[in-house]
């Protein structure tokens, strides 16, 4: 397993278990199977609405002596309705309570989008906060305070483009240590990845398998199916591995952490074994040559809300 080493020498195993879309009722078992298989990195978020079950599973594993708290790297994310400075702590405390933990290893601002505190998903323009009154620098200073208090060991962002990162870098005391973004061969985002790395920001790939189980509202009829591209099958056959393993190994070969989601025991195990898959230069080059490009999680659920103050160009460097 490859690790990311932070400035204080904390280590993040680069392959973790994703939990977005893992339903309550499934995620408990998935976490236990993952820990048993050897995962030591679990990616969570308040908005996934399953942190209580994740917490129950972690507690069970700790109580049974399967693994110690300090051996598991747990990430969670601040939802968009807790961007006001005094709300950041409230958001974290709820997550800590649900996860039954007294600290997180990494806490991320989930999106550079601010909603009113009673809103989970926006339905009209009134549901958004006035950005000029709640700039990202305010939310970030709330994150910095959590780090200073030892409630979270590391802080970072998710779904931030170069412009938004630059905005943070200009005002922050503590630099973001992670940007978690959608990354797979249909969306390799080399400029954003290089920008992050140049600024000492680590990168995690979400939806590395193309998130085929994303909710209907996040799907379009003509979305390409990542796992079905014939090139990946060809490379998988060459190495005697699965297509999913090729996709996971592709991120690791780019020195990017990766968090495939699964609730299936065999696939959970299979995905972790991708850490041992060696792609060669020809494989990486062939994947780089894929002309198909696609962003699955495009943020239209924020930008296309009537009266939304956000547009696609606020979210992405290129749309
Ligand atoms: P399941 O949970 O039933 O295993 P992403 O990580 O990009 O969001 O993708 C998650 C989707 O990919 C889920 O539908 C998940 O289903 C499926 N998946 C996870 N691992 C594999 C695998 N090894 N092979 C095929 N599909 C997988």
How is this structure best summarized?
It comes from Cyclobacterium jeungdonense. The chain has 319 residues and is an alpha/beta fold.
Could you say what the CATH architecture is? Alpha-Beta Barrel
Helix count from the secondary structure assignment: 12
Task: List the strand order in the largest sheet.
Answer: 3-4-5-6-7-8-9-10
Mean pLDDT across all amino acids: 96
What compounds are bound to the protein?
A: adenosine-2'-5'-diphosphate
CATH superfamily: NADP-dependent oxidoreductase domain
Rg result: 19 Å
N- and C-termini, Cα separation: 34 Å
Q: Profile the largest sheet.
A: 8 strands, parallel
CATH classification class = Alpha Beta
Summarize the amount of helix as a percent range.
25-40%
**Number of beta strands:** 10
Topology order in helix (H) and strand (E) letters: EEEHEHEHEHEHEHEHHEHHHH
**Low-pLDDT runs:** none
């Amino acid at each position: 397993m490859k690790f990311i080493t932070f400035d204080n020498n904390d280590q993040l195993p680069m392959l973790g278990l994703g939990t977005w879309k893992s339903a309550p009722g499934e995620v408990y078992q998935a976490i236990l199977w993952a820990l048993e298989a050897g995962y030591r990195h679990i990616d969570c978020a308040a908005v996934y609405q399953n942190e209580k079950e994740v917490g129950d599973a972690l507690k069970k594993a700790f109580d049974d002596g399967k693994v110690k708290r300090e051996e598991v790297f747990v990430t969670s994310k601040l939802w968009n309705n807790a961007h006001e400075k005094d709300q950041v702590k409230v958001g974290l405390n709820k997550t800590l309570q649900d996860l039954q933990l007294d600290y997180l290893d990494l806490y991320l601002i989930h999106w550079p989008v601010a909603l009113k505190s009673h809103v989970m998903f926006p339905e009209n323009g009134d549901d958004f906060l006035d950005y000029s009154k709640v700039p990202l620098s305010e939310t970030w200073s709330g994150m910095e305070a959590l780090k200073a208090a030892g409630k979270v060991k590391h802080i970072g962002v998710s779904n931030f483009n170069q412009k938004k990162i630059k905005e943070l870098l200009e005002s922050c005391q503590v630099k973001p240590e992670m940007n978690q973004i959608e990354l797979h061969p249909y969306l390799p985002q080399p400029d954003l990845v290089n920008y992050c790395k140049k600024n000492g920001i680590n990168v995690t790939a979400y939806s590395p398998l193309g998130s085929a189980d994303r909710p209907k509202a996040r799907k379009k009829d003509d979305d390409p199916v990542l796992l079905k591209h014939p090139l990946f099958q060809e490379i998988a056959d060459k190495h005697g591995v699965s297509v999913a393993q090729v996709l996971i190994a592709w991120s690791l070969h780019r020195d990017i952490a990766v968090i495939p989601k699964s609730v299936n025991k065999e696939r959970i195990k299979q995905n972790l074994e991708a850490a041992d898959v060696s792609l060669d230069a020809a494989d990486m080059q062939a994947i780089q040559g894929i002309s198909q490009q696609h962003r699955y999680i495009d943020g239209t659920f924020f930008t296309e809300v009537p009266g939304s103050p956000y547009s696609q160009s606020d979210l992405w460097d290129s749309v």
